[in-house]
Amino acid sequence: MDIEVCIDSLDQAQAALKFGAKRVELCAALDLGGLTPTAGLTRQCAELTGLEVHVMIRTHGGGFFYSKEDIEIMKLDMESLNKAGATGVVFGVLNKDQSLNIEQNHLLFNYAKSLGLDVTFHRAFDFVLDPKQSLEKLIEIGFDRLLTSGQKSTAIDGIDLIRKMVDQSNRRIEIMAGSGVNSDNVKKLQATGIDAIHFTARKPMNITDMNMGQDYIVDTEKLSSIVDQIRN
User: Fold this and answer.
1) What is the distance between the alpha carbons of residues 44 and 32, in angstroms, rounded to a whole number?
2) Per-residue confidence in pLDDT tens, the chain, 232 aa
3) Which of 55, 56, 58, 146 matches a 20 to 30 Å C-alpha distance to 22?
């Protein structure tokens, strides 16, 4: 089972590599669920030998509905971050009724593949109304991987659906479980047959003045404990 660490800083990328992660999902604004990171940070992380850098492609928080202008921005971001060294992209587009936007997902998928990028559909999936049908659509489009919490707030709560998705996918797409993953539940999640596990490895340090946001440092204890459980 592969390990993917969700990060928003270079020191988190370095820690992920040290503890044996295969790849990172690089984001900005993790407190908003993750937005598109900068090219500078992407390049620095991509220079770490042995670590795949997959970047979030998301122009705004608050949902997964995008205008035509947003889609063009997402394509431009894919191009610039690919040039900065990213080897994969992570995105997901829904309609206002929470169904998959097949046309826009296909467009972004094809553009990513034209750049030679690996493609993951993110947790927008956890908001769709028909997960079984939606999974088949993502397989049909050709997505390499799906990140999901089994449509619950945490993956361990969604474990029954995750198990069903693993069976349904039959290795036609990688299933990666994420949200609330820790050393106490990772073995149970691994037992579902998932291809990868996804988690953050940061903890709050202090709150800056004047409402400028939370500061974080690497949570090496969490990283170490999860990796130890997987390896043992």
Assistant:
1) 23
2) 999 999 999 999 999 999 999 999 999 999 999 999 999 999 999 999 999 999 999 999 999 999 999 999 999 999 999 999 999 999 999 999 999 999 999 999 999 999 999 999 999 999 999 999 999 999 999 999 999 999 999 999 999 999 999 999 999 999 999 999 999 999 999 999 999 999 999 998 876 655 667 788 999 999 999 999 998 8
3) 58
Please give the backbone phi and psi of residue 211, each rounded to the nearest 5 degrees, phi first: 55, 45
Cα separation, 145 vs 117, in Å, equals 12
Residue 77: how many CB atoms within 10 A of its CB? 21
The CATH homologous superfamily for domain 2-231 is Copper homeostasis (CutC) domain (3.20.20.380)
Domain ranges within the chain, ordered by starting residue: 2-231
Tell the burial category of 179 from Cβ atoms under 10 Å away from its Cβ (0-12, 13-18, 19+). buried
The 8 Å CB, 24+ separation contacts for 62-68 are 62/32, 63/94, 64/92, 64/93, 64/94, 64/124, 64/127, 65/93, 65/94, 65/95, 65/96, 65/101, 66/93, 66/101, 66/104
**Which is nearest to 4 in space by CA: 151, 179, 206?**
179
Q: How far apart are CA 2 and CA 54, in angstroms?
A: 14
Amino acid of residue 71: I
The residues with which 120 forms a beta bridge, in sequence order, are 90, 145
